[in-house]
Amino acid sequence: MQYTSQYQSPLGDMLIAANDIGVTGLWFVGQKYFAYSLDKESEEKETAILQDTKKWLDMYFSGKEPSFKIPLQFTGTDFQNEVWKILCDIPYGQTMTYGEIATILAKKKSLNKMSAQAVGGAVGKNGITIIIPCHRVVGSNGSLTGYAGGISKKIELLKLEKGYKDTFFIPQKSTAI
């Protein structure tokens, strides 16, 4: 059974989901893939895990690196779960590229190469935003791409962590015909 609770962050309302093992989802309301891994039958209830998650988020949004870990229950494919575990290792206030993550995965699997695009697909399906810090993943040229909550939220999260650099840029869509 999954339990849910609402959280009001400085960047917008969020929905938290958890089971008895750990957090199964954390989304900005209305973001891409919102609540996609939420069970059809869930119950709104304040559990200990949900209360701890709110404390973690309060600390995070106050501009401090949370001093404790939240138990997580990944709900993706094996590949997505592998990518998400790597995301959890990106230090607070730092970033990593999709290509760097692909290289780590390739080494783990004893492969010569892994697709950065495949990594990007897994990063984009992260259903536990912020705690699994997909906002810390940037393009190889420093571009801020691929955040389901929107680029403006990604920028604010990086600024909050003081990991925002002027070298990041948002690629503009071409208007050429």
Automatic annotation (TrEMBL):
Subcellular location, principal: cytoplasm
Top-level division of the source organism's lineage: Bacteria
EC number: 2.1.1.63
UniProt subcellular location: Cytoplasm
Domain Methylguanine DNA methyltransferase ribonuclease-like, chain residue ranges per copy: 3-73
PROSITE patterns linked to this entry: MGMT
Catalysed reactions, as listed in the record: a 6-O-methyl-2'-deoxyguanosine in DNA + L-cysteinyl-[protein] = S-methyl-L-cysteinyl-[protein] + a 2'-deoxyguanosine in DNA; a 4-O-methyl-thymidine in DNA + L-cysteinyl-[protein] = a thymidine in DNA + S-methyl-L-cysteinyl-[protein]
Keywords associated with the record: Cytoplasm, DNA damage, DNA repair, Methyltransferase, Transferase
GO MF terms held by the record: methylated-DNA-[protein]-cysteine S-methyltransferase activity
Active site: 134
GO cellular component, one term: cytoplasm
CDD domains xref list: ATase
GO biological process, one term: methylation
UniProt keyword annotation of DNA damage present: yes
UniProt keyword Signal present: no
Pfam families xref list: DNA_binding_1 (PF01035), Methyltransf_1N (PF02870)
Broad enzyme group: transferase
Domain Methylated-DNA-[protein]-cysteine S-methyltransferase DNA binding stretches: 78-162
PANTHER family (alphabetical): METHYLATED-DNA--PROTEIN-CYSTEINE METHYLTRANSFERASE
Function noted in UniProt: Involved in the cellular defense against the biological effects of O6-methylguanine (O6-MeG) and O4-methylthymine (O4-MeT) in DNA. Repairs the methylated nucleobase in DNA by stoichiometrically transferring the methyl group to a cysteine residue in the enzyme. This is a suicide reaction: the enzyme is irreversibly inactivated.
Leftover remarks: This enzyme catalyzes only one turnover and therefore is not strictly catalytic. According to one definition, an enzyme is a biocatalyst that acts repeatedly and over many reaction cycles.
NCBIfam families: ogt (TIGR00589)
Family label: Belongs to the MGMT family.
Name of the protein in its database record: Methylated-DNA--protein-cysteine methyltransferase
